[in-house]
Amino acid sequence: MMTSPLAGLVLAGIGAPLVLLVVLGGASVLNRPLGERWTGPLAASMLTLSCAALLAALVVHGATSAGARLLSYGARSGGGDGGIALELLVDPLSLAFAALSAAIAGVVSAFSNRYLHREPGYSRYFVLLAMFVTGMLFVALAGNVEVLFIGWEFVGLSSALLVAFFHERPAPVSNALRVFSVYRISDAAMLSAAVLLRHAAGTDSLALLFGGAGAASAVALTQGNATLIAVLLIVAVAGKSALLPFSGWLPRAMEGPTPSSAVYYGSLSIHAGCFLLLRSAPLLAHAPAAALLAGALGGATAVFAGLTTRVQSDVKSSLAYASLTQVGLIIAEIACGWTTLAFVHMVGHACFRLLQFLSAPNVLHDLHGMEDAIGDRPARSGGLLETLAPESVRRRLFLAVLERGFLDSILERAVVQPFERTARRLTSLDRWLCGAPMSAGQPMAFEAESRDD
Amino acid sequence: MRERSLPGDPGPSLGRTIDDLAQLLPAQGPISIFIHHNTLHAFEHLPFEQAVEEAARRLDREPYLAESRYRGKLASGRILARDVAALLEAQLGPRGAEDVAGLGGRLALWQAVVLHGIPFAAGRELSWILEETPALSRFRTDLPADARAALAALVEQVDDPAGEERRVVRRLWRACLEAIDRAGDPPRAPDPAPPVRHRDWLRIAYGLDVDDWIHPPLIRFLAGYLDQGLAHWAMPGRDRGIHGCFLELYGTPLASQCGAWARTLPRIVADDRAEGRDALASIAHSLAALGVPEGEWRECLGAELLALRGWAGIVRQIEERPDRVPARDIMVTLRGYLASRLLLERAAVDEAMRRLSLSGPPAALRAALRGRRPVASPPTAAERAWTLFHLAQLRGVDASLVGQWTPGQIGELEAELSDLDEVRRRRILHQAFERTIRHRLYDALALHTPPAPPERPVFQAIFCLDEREESFRRHLEEIEPACETFGTAGFFNVAMYHQGASDAHPRPLCPVAIRPVHFVAEVEPDRDRLAGRSRRLQRRAAGFLGYNVHLGSRLPVRGALLMTMFGWLALVPLILRVVFPWLFSRVRVAPAAAGGTRLQLDRRGLPPPIGVHNGFTVREMADIVRGVLVDIGISPRLSPLVLVLGHGSVSLNNPHESAHDCGACGGGRGGPNARAFAQMANDPRVRELLAEEGLRVDAATWFVGGQRNTCDNTVDFFDEDLVPEVVRPLFARAKDAVGAARRREAHERCRRFDPVPGWYPPAAALAHVQGRAADLAQPRPEYGHATNAFCVVGRRARTRGLFLDRRAFLVSYDPTQDADGAILSRTLAAAVPVVAGISLEYYFSYVDPSGYGSGTKLPHNVTSLLGVMDGAQSDLRTGLPWQMVEVHEPARLAIVVEGAPERLWRVVSDNPALDRLVRNRWIWLACLDVRSDALWELRPDGFVRHAPQHPLPAVAGDSATWYQGKRGFLAPVAIVAASAGAPSRRAIEVQAV
User: Fold this and answer.
1) Which one of B208, B232, B233 would you mutate to disrupt binding with A, by most A Cβ within 10 Å of its Cβ?
2) In a shared domain, residues B557 and B657
3) B232, B503, B863 member nearest A372 (Cβ)
4) How far is A262 from chain B (nearest CA, A)?
5) DSSP result, B147-180
6) CA B921/CA B938 separation, integer angstroms
7) Minimal Cα–Cα distance from B202 to chain A, Å?
């Protein structure tokens, strides 16, 4: 079933960043970080190797067959339960996205090698970047739920840790926590989908959802199960790609060094959700209600982010919401079933936005240049909506988008505060039941805040 | 622009208070016109040391480097122990000989403590040190020699020295503990100052930080209000002033959604609006509502301003100089900002009280919290014993002696140590550090025997006084020994608004203290012909395309089309610019303007777009030309060709790009000034006028203006086609020399850049710096003014041939042509504030990189086109980023003026600004005698002759012979031509390092 050159190339493609992660991470764990002299060239060569191998695999795959293949590495006990195998689903879509991820990561590692020169967190940064690339390739090529989940977690963990890169200041750390907690919701949804899949179909192979390889397809699921799984996946996607109502974390994630913001929120991580949904297009086709939900979420996100980016007065937030606008549109395209368009859109956006993010500090230089060429300051008209609406509506709308749709405070009131209240009630219930002084070591601040409405 | 208040209001006095408090704010303007200034300008009326320490307390910053950094410099020889000793001797005077608690003279005691330090440790850290480190089992390893010998004697004659040492050290520790026990309670430490703001009270008492609530929306509002064109949709109502706009925007019930804390915000805002309060009235009302008594207003408002000092600072800057920002439709006042801030704060305090179940009006909060004021805890016995323990070791005293200390003696020792506290030790070490650096220059100047200047220079070159030109001039002189160079403020006396042929707007090119009155435009010769029109059209088309990509990428539909169809094309520039920047730098975009443009210098009747006059009259031009030629002393010896070179810097992905431009051009590029100057000096009408006044410029003399890009070392000359035929061969020769100097100067700069190996050839070095300038990923395109430490005002003949390591501002001034000191007075008044501002800004940004500086560049986020924030959102970061200053040595500028000390003193005392800087020692002043080698240093008791301590080695060859292969700071040496038969290079290195 498997042609060995293809399997070898894919393994090399996915193995190179893994080797990088093991070498850099291992050296750091042993408290012997490699230093700039070795890290930069090693990262560059491994990522180039990975990209080249994946491109070659794409060519080999195209030359030999058209369909999707399931490559399985490692033993697996029968019956679908027991051991974990490294299963990769290989088709032009997954190979192209993987190759693009490796290429972009390679460019970013070359950028970062100079940008982070002499930075105290240099080694840490590259370990996290390697973890990220490995995670992205796992997500791109995942053939079963385990591989997908490992990749998903690698991406999420490295993302949160890079947001907290400058951990000597409080803001990056608290924002990283916020990003991480949204990611946990997304992860939980993903895990639930996996459990449900296994429960309903008795397999963890993603071929079932993604279609293609073998006889398995989404048809094997009942309508209800398919919809439920699809909705759970959409929640996972919404968390990872900052769709409504989770969009609030995206601008907060701009705390890391510029290249990490670029590769995560301009280019790859933000599209991981789109890619997952793109892969699940066969499932969506089988669950029209879920497709409708995805379309609505994508469209609403695009409108919200499109308005919000207009009023952002710092370059990174402006770019973050601009990215989100396109991500919302891509999700909507997928929901409509225009998968090829969505893929081209996604690739174009990933490349373009990366360049824009990487040159974000150049915005003064760029705008001055444009202004000089045009001969005047370009007029700031605002869109039709902004100019035509009556003034009081305009003011309110402006405040609403300036405050980013009030998403943070709505979430805080609707989710965080009730959650905290419940937790406190449970604590006092325990105290009442056991009579134990539970609050002995608690800081006063927590008590002080614990007043109920 | 300020909002007026009605009589009878709290207005006038409150307004004055705010204006007064505003001085504490960072005085940095918009980042694209970066002007170096003394970060602590507001403290200049105090002596330097007092000022930095006072500012450190008030602003919560560092006054000097950390003590450990100075100790590192002591170890590496950047600070000499003998300088520390000399300083202590001078500072202690007769007190140095007094005996302290039987431990010997104070001088020796202080010297031991300052040179070796007493590590600070308290609380759990101290417990950890005592339990987990060898502190109690070994003597310190970094003791002074005498102490080490005395302590070693205690453990010498035993079989088990390590065990014995442990016992001796433990005995000493116990003795110290017992001594503290005997001494009784320490003197009571003063309580920490009570908090000022409500937020501080709440944080101390309940751990609740209301700034975390109000700062995010406040920053968003303010950034949106001040935005200069980054956001596509401008904030509505910006013409109403900050406070008015805030009331409009937050007056809706929606505003309560700004955060879970904002419940009462709409009510508070609506109340302000209904009462029709202006900003000042609103501030007064808010303060009253918060229960701040009028006596505490000043303190409270000061603390409010400092809470977001970067943003408040830029508000103040725009309020004072609205002409320096492009947005004309906004009205910016600091009081407006304060009023809005206090409204938010009131809502937050309401919510905090609600959450804490504190009843009563907010006005009562301060009183209610007064009981929860923190008290100072006295040091523990172990903490006190710890310092004695170290002191005993430093003086080589053993347990038996410590056991004999009386309570009185112990009190005396503790008092002595609290007198010589950490800040004081750092101060002394810092002073010694500066002294070491400064004296190397004094030694070099006093000992240097310059080569005789060329009798008739083949050509001359006038540069900016910038210290980055020191190396360029040195290399040029090494390449062409028959040339002569000069340095003067890089605007060459031409203060103007300049609009280049491809510029959208005119910009001022002159020191920031001057508001230019003249406007000068650059025009293309074929402006109205077809070629000119089509070029302009192409330029506009390219601009519109760029702008539409910029904007379209942010819009949904246009963005989707753009990304889907052309997005992947971005991979090409991405890979080219990031992976092969040096290649990319070759692909030059066609010049925006055609060759053969001219400056319209002549006065024309048309009203200028900005300023008062369109162009200069011949009279004005003659004055400008005479000013420079006379002041730098070139006028009696003009050669047939004079190059006039301004400078600027172009780099990518660098929001602080303008900070590398010419300070004398107000953070602009000085090429147009050099060009204008040359054109004026070539003008026959000007020469005629000058000749009438006795300044003869030979008809054969030709001036050529140019500009050096200090980042990629390109040198462009202007109006080359006008160079007369007879001068052309000479000009070609000069251009060759300049070309070679470009390579060599790039090479010298490369020795500081990390990945460049020491064996790099000069040709490759030029490619390297060009790559840096074009590299998106490069946070250090050049090192700017970093390492600046000296300024020499005098004839180049005194410094020619001296290797000053790009650390010296060089101002040309010929005391032999200055009969009455008028030239000196002018020169110092123009140059010193600029160079002192640069030096002090670098000092503070280095000493406290994240406090006074703007921290690391990597998370910087350009905001409102006015400045940078850290990451997603933060206070506006002012000062220089760490990557710009990391190779710097924070030392005040040492200015050496050639001339007579009495005259120098008179000139300085006559200028109040200079006098303040010199008297309060924000700069060091010295005087180099015109005729002899004597160098007088200005000390508190007047000019004192400096006795050189280091020989000045001579290096045969060129500068590269001395610097090649070396990374760190290099001492001044005399570079002599290889034929002069100096000692071999190896021998010199041994001598000099």
Assistant:
1) B233
2) no
3) B503
4) 11
5) HHHHHHHHHTTSS-HHHHHHHHHHHHHHHHHHHH
6) 10
7) 10
Let me know whether B505 and B574 are in one domain: no
Say if CB A325 and CB A78 are below 8 A apart. Answer: no
pLDDT at A66: 61
Q: Assess if residue B789 is contained within a domain.
A: yes
Instruction: Evaluate whether B108 touches B114 at the Cβ level (below 8 Å).
Output: no
Identity of the amino acid at B797? A
Q: What is the pLDDT, as a whole number, of residue A451?
A: 39
Chain B residue with minimum CA distance to A115: B777
Q: Are A241 and A331 in contact (CB under 8 A)?
A: yes
Residue with tokens 């030059």: B588
CA distance B179 to B487: 64
CB contact under 8 A, B260 and A417: yes
Percent of chain B residues past pLDDT 70, beyond the cut: 96
Residue A453: predicted pLDDT:
36
B117-121, B671-675, B850-854: range with lowest mean pLDDT: B117-121
- Which A-chain residues 325-344 have CB contacts (< 8 A) with chain B? 325-326, 329, 341, 344
- Averaged over B909-920, what is the pLDDT? 94
Range of the structural domain that residue B574 is part of? 530-586
Least confident of A260-264, B236-240, B284-288, B728-732: B236-240
Which token pair is B818? 């200055």
Q: What is the pLDDT of residue A8?
A: 87
Cβ count near A36 (within 10 Å): 19
Are B799 and B885 in contact by the 8 Å Cβ rule? The answer is no
Number of compact structural domains in chain B = 5
Same domain as B668, residue B538: no
Would you place residue B675 in the very low, low, confident or very high pLDDT band (cuts 50, 70, 90)? very high
Q: State whether residue A356 sits within 8 Å of chain B by CB.
A: yes
What phi and psi values does residue B614 have, to the nearest 5 degrees?
-95, 100
Would you list the DSSP string of B298-364? HHHHHHHHHHTHHHHHHHHHHHH-GGGSS--S----HHHHHHHHHHHHHHHHHHHHHHTT--S-GGG
Question: Any chain A CB within 8 A of the CB of B561?
Answer: no
Q: Using CB atoms, which residue from A116, A254, A352 is nearest to B563?
A: A352
My answer on whether B417 and B508 are in the same domain is no
Q: Which pLDDT score is estimated for B992?
A: 38
B28 within a domain of the structure (yes/no): no
Lowest mean per-residue pLDDT among B42-56, B167-181, B315-329: B315-329
Q: Which of A319, A354, A400 lies at the smallest CB-CB distance from B574?
A: A354
- Contact by Cβ (8 Å): A310, A401: yes
- On whether the CB atoms of residues B475 and B748 are closer than 8 A, the answer is yes
Q: Does residue B982 belong to the interface with chain A, where contact is any CB pair within 8 Å?
A: no
Q: Supply A445's token pair.
A: 């601040």
Q: What interface predicted TM-score (ipTM) does this complex get?
A: 0.90
The pTM for the full model equals 0.92
Is B18 contained in some domain? no
At B117 the three-state DSSP class reads coil
Ranges of each domain in chain A: 4-362, 408-449
B936 lies in the same domain as B967: no
Same domain, B383 and B346: no
Sheet architecture: strand order including B954-956:
B802-803, B973-976, B954-956
DSSP state letter for B190:
P
The C-alpha atoms of residue A444 and residue B293 are separated, in whole angstroms, by 29
Residue B864 touches partner A, C-beta closer than 8 Å: yes
Count of CA atoms in the C-beta half-sphere (13 A) of B626: 17
> Does B923 have pLDDT greater than 90?
yes
E-state strands within A74-112:
86-90
Q: Is residue B730 part of a domain?
A: yes
Distance of CA B16 to the CA centre of its chain: 29
